[in-house]
Amino acid sequence: xxxxxxxxxxxxxxxxxxxxxxxxxxxxxxxxxxxxxxxxxxxxxxxxxxxxxxxxxxxxxxxxxxxxxxxxxxxxxxxxxxxxxxxxxxxxxxxxxxxxxxxxxxxxxxxxxxxxxxxxxxxxxxxxxxxxxxxxxxxxxxxxxxxxxxxxxxxxxxxxxxxxxxxxxxxxxxxxxxxxxxxxxxxxxxxxxxxxxxxxxxxxxxxxxxxxxxxxxxxxxxxxxxxxxxxxxxxxxxxxxxxxxxxxxxx
Length: 251
Fold this sequence. Notes:
Number of helices: 9
Structural class: alpha/beta
Oligomer: single chain
Largest sheet: 7 strands, parallel
């Protein structure tokens, strides 16, 4: 049985990395997927051909309110509704690690703009349509870094901590409308972008020793949690934080 059959699902930042893994699994589980990203998804769409219905790509800058509204309108035009939003778009792989005294305000603003303002704008845009249906799933992606207190990525860690608080508050606010909101906090994942940068890969690799399951984390390790939270199986779960990091952070 397909766990996401016909569920209209928007996945931001879905063209690459963990987002692409979400797209692949959602398609395979029967979802009708919208890939919202600034990066084209032609190669990904070709890769998932035959797994299920073909995803729709909408070029979307999640920090641009007009672009986000356009994404929602195109989703509604094609599929007639919205069941699931995965707020996955974020900046981090190309963010230079540095202590607080070296972080410029422009850099701070850019990280928070994508990582938390983008989550806010996309959520705000889909909520009225979920309210009309009396049902919806919002899945926000945080990070294991936000759970442990770490150095040299204060702007990133702050944005991902804000995602957790944002999720808990909207879960309280929107539960009466049948909308569930939960957070996934992955550990450091060995995506293609990470593997292409030795310094980032080495930094993440050091965290492997903090895990109960002592191996590198790959994108497929996270997709099961996302499918679960998008499916009917988690209909009585909201406001929760699920760390998917091999047991590095234990809440």
